[in-house]
Design a protein that fits this description.
With 433 residues, the chain is mainly alpha-helical. It is built from 21 helices and no strands.
Length: 433
């Protein structure tokens, strides 16, 4: 490829604009239009082709709906009731509040589909609970909350999995199912680490919740606990598509928070709508830029060229998966996860298919990699969020999160090399991959 080729010039343009502070979505659109003009292609015809291909695709509608559902859960009392429920059952053990943090993330993961929503929604409450009376250091509480929030997009619903389905044509329903066991595995890995750390650092034992109070706490949390059941039951019962399930999740969160719990004011509801619109617009612009750039990449035949190059290296499927893990983990340190998912992954998908890698297994592995990028410095978005919430220094949080990162990497290795961890549950529901 010539240094002065339209594609090279477009890449340089995108890089320069991104470094100058232009949002990556806008930079990709500008660079891609520059490529089309230099290559003599009509931008109007390209836009028409992209729009025609999207008219029958409703996958992207799930993204703003899941975001809105997460916003409603954060402003209502659903999260507080879930925390009380988790504390009643696992808070009584040594390091109990740390275990509560992990369990609530596993449960909340079945509702929000977003790691950022998980950290922002329950992070502040967990930070206050864990640091009260000096039980845990602020940096340890923040590190644990950031690490557990990673589970959010692994257990369904999952916004990153929706985006992966957009670029790979994999089934969203089976992707959701494929994330259940890996998500629980990641939670268990961190719970085992907390048990070990609690004994070594002599973490406090919380006052047990009396048994007679358990039924009442469970009843109060029951409507919130039913949300994953409604969501997943609707999808796998054949009642609704994943996109319709996203609408059902938003409607259910609205009914529970506003009508049943009566914990949301009109002002809070308006603010949540605005926040959801801003987040959706931001992701939508990135998706738009990625779609145009992916068209450019396809015109340049880069995915097929990469697949042919790797085939010439006689690379096995396992070697390819190891290479993908390394690439994504490195990129996750410096790039935003959605950008990786929409720009880098489409280039890797044809090679994965050519090597016989299952697309559901590949998708879950990719999403786990991208989520780990949220807790790896220097970019780690969740680290910045928890630094702001906790007041602890970034250096202290990074120090305390390293053991959890090791536990998550062990879980990633198992997910990579033992595909049945991902595929067992989808196959119980008829998946033939």
């Amino acid at each position: 490829m010539s240094v002065a080729s339209p594609f090279s010039i477009a890449i340089v343009g995108i890089t320069v604009l991104a470094f100058l502070g232009l949002p990556i979505g806008h930079a990709m659109i500008a660079g891609s239009i520059l490529y089309l003009l230099l290559a003599g292609l009509d931008p109007g015809i390209v836009a028409e082709q992209l729009l025609n291909s999207m008219y029958t695709g409703y996958v992207m509608l799930a993204v703003p709906l899941f975001i809105f559902a997460a916003e409603l859960m954060n402003i209502g009392s659903m999260t507080e009731r879930l925390l009380l429920f988790c504390n009643a059952f696992v808070g009584r053990f040594r390091g109990g509040l740390a275990q509560v943090n992990i369990v609530q993330s596993i449960i909340f993961a079945g509702m929000s589909g977003s790691a950022v929503a998980d950290a922002a929604g329950t992070g502040k409450m967990m930070q206050v609970m864990m640091t009260r009376d000096g039980r845990y250091t602020p940096s340890y509480a923040a590190a644990l909350t950031a690490a557990t929030a990673v589970i959010g997009p692994i257990i369904p619903p999952s916004i990153p999995m929706v985006l992966y389905a957009l670029v790979s044509d994999a089934s969203i329903g089976y992707l959701f199912l494929g994330g259940v066991v890996p998500g629980v595995l990641m939670g268990v890995a961190m719970m085992i680490l907390v048990v070990y750390t609690a004994r070594r650092r002599n973490f406090p034992v919380e006052t047990p919740v009396p048994v007679r109070e358990l039924p009442g706490i469970t009843i109060r949390a029951f409507p919130s606990l039913m949300m994953p059941v409604v969501l997943l039951g609707g999808i796998y019962g054949g009642v609704m598509t994943p996109t319709e399930a996203a609408a059902a999740a938003a409607a259910y969160a609205f009914l529970i928070s506003v009508l049943l719990y009566r914990s949301v004011t009109a002002r809070q509801l308006y603010a949540s709508l605005l926040a959801s619109a801003r987040s959706s617009a931001s992701i939508g612009m990135l998706i738009g830029g990625a779609l145009v750039f992916n068209y450019v990449v396809t015109v340049e035949n880069i995915p097929n060229a990469l697949a042919a190059y790797l085939a010439g290296m006689n690379m096995t499927a396992v070697q390819f998966l190891i290479l993908v893990n390394v690439i994504l983990l490195i990129l996750g340190c410096v790039l935003e996860g959605t950008a990786i998912l929409l720009i880098i992954v489409p280039v890797l998908v044809p090679t994965a298919e050519a090597l016989g890698v299952d697309m559901v297994h590949f998708g879950v592995m990719v999403v786990v990699n991208i989520m780990l990028g949220l807790v790896t410095p220097p970019y780690g978005l969740l680290l910045f969020i928890m630094t702001n919430i906790s007041g602890a220094s970034l250096r202290a949080i990074v120090r305390d999160i390293l053991p959890f990162l090791v536990a998550l990497l062990v879980a990633l290795a198992l997910i990579t090399f033992v595909p049945e961890i991902v595929l067992w549950l989808p196959r119980q529901f008829g998946y033939q991959g």
